């Protein structure tokens, strides 16, 4: 410890003299780890990009070969029409799914759903790539809420400025069946302040159950742990209740003790469905991060000091789920038949407009065509009962 302290002091002194700072041993190891993760991520992205390109080319070639092998012009016309009909059926099924999803979300908004607020008042504390990561997590929250049999009544509060600009770039965002408020949650729920409960790992109260009369708040903050305890401090200053999920009663976390916004939200949805915290935690928290089931040891898991950067580097949000997010939030009912390349191009354009998606340690990995998960995502899904990777 003394040697490391002396090294850090030497680093400060070197910096004062205009020389490059000397990193401590732990800092060098951390930097080397980040560099290795970045290299592996770049290699995975390049391999996946090549795999997708080869897959698209293979399907195109097979289709052209099948058309060329047709015995007559009539047969070729029948093949083309059959393919169009298949696409029409697929569009029809998606339209039905959109209708059913919209109905569930409307029922939730009419009072059937648990009220959950994503507090977006922290945008001024985040870097642009962190705001982008939070935007992706919000999109995933909306997508998984739509798929839920018992969706929550989801609110976005403090939705203004750069945060609102990023959200507006999501295809179909204006048609989301969700409550959006530029004002803070204290103003949005000024007549129900006594029902507000801020979820934060630093709270003393453990949440045993979800109360339909309560309004649970999840802090929308991606900060790489720069602002520790900020949500509990905010709740205390505002005089509202705070609580933490009972993770320590069921799990002993084996690695990084960080949950993303979408993971906390999905845990709540799963609990509403099963009324079982252990099932909810095991469904969402990946196997690599959870130890053996525990009954008493309290594991501190951060709900507010969210590190989406680590999650993104390790497949935090499944890539096919991001594509499902794009498919599900784009609720415009448009039945125009588009080929797969056009759809993929639109998604890539959206990601370019939103920022550095997948281009840095804080970005979210580039999504694949809908339903076409990467091998890493598939492996994670198998080991985690299709839960969101962390």
UniProtKB/TrEMBL annotation:
Residues 1-77, 288-390 are annotated as: Disordered. Residues 318-342 have a biased composition (Acidic residues). GO terms for cellular component: nucleus. The lineage of its organism: Eukaryota, Viridiplantae, Streptophyta, Embryophyta, Tracheophyta. Keywords: Methyltransferase, S-adenosyl-L-methionine, Transferase. GO terms for biological process: tRNA N1-guanine methylation. It comes from Paspalum notatum var. saurae. Residues 101-292 form the SAM-dependent MTase TRM10-type domain. It catalyses: guanosine(9) in tRNA + S-adenosyl-L-methionine = N(1)-methylguanosine(9) in tRNA + S-adenosyl-L-homocysteine + H(+). PROSITE patterns: SAM_MT_TRM10. This is tRNA (guanine(9)-N(1))-methyltransferase. Its EC number is 2.1.1.221. Residues 32-64, 289-303 have a biased composition (Basic and acidic residues). The keyword Transmembrane does not apply. The keyword Oxidoreductase does not apply. InterPro entries: MT_TRM10-typ (IPR028564), MT_TRM10-typ_sf (IPR038459), tRNA_m1G_MeTrfase_euk (IPR007356). One of its GO terms (molecular function) is tRNA binding.
């Amino acid at each position: 410890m003394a040697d490391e302290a002396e090294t850090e002091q030497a680093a400060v002194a070197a910096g004062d003299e205009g020389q490059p700072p000397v990193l401590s041993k732990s800092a060098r190891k951390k930097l080397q780890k980040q560099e290795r993760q970045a290299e592996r991520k770049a290699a995975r992205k390049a391999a996946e990009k090549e795999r997708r390109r080869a897959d698209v080319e293979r399907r195109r070639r097979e289709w052209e070969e099948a058309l060329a092998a047709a015995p007559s012009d009539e047969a070729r016309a029948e093949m083309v029409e059959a393919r169009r009909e298949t696409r029409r059926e697929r569009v029809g099924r998606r339209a039905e799914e959109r209708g059913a999803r919209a109905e569930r979300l409307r029922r939730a908004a009419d009072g059937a759903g648990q009220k959950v607020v994503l507090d977006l008042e922290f945008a001024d504390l985040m870097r642009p790539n962190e705001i982008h990561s939070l935007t992706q997590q919000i999109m995933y929250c909306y997508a998984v809420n739509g798929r839920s049999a018992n969706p929550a009544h989801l609110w976005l509060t403090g939705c203004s400025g750069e945060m609102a600009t990023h959200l507006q770039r999501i295809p179909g965002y204006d048609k989301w069946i969700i409550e959006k408020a530029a004002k803070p949650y204290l103003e949005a729920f000024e007549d129900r302040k006594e029902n507000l409960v801020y979820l934060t790992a630093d709270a003393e109260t453990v949440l045993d159950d979800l109360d339909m009369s309560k309004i649970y708040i999840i802090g929308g903050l991606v900060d790489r742990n720069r602002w520790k305890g900020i949500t509990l401090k905010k709740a205390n200053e505002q005089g509202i209740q705070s609580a933490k999920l009972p993770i320590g009663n069921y799990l002993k976390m084996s690695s990084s003790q960080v949950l993303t916004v979408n993971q906390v939200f999905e845990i709540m949805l799963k609990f509403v469905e099963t009324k079982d915290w252990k099932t909810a935690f095991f469904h969402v928290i990946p196997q690599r991060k959870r130890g053996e089931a525990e009954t008493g040891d309290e594991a501190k898991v951060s709900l507010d000091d969210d590190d989406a950067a680590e999650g993104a580097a390790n497949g935090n949000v499944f890539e096919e789920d991001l594509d499902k997010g794009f498919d599900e939030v784009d609720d415009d009912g448009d039945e125009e038949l588009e080929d797969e390349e056009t759809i993929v191009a639109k998604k890539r354009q959206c990601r370019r407009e939103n920022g550095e998606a997948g281009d840095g340690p804080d970005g979210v990995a580039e999504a694949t065509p809908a339903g076409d998960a990467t091998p890493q995502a598939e492996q994670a899904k198998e080991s985690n009962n299709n839960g969101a990777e962390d």
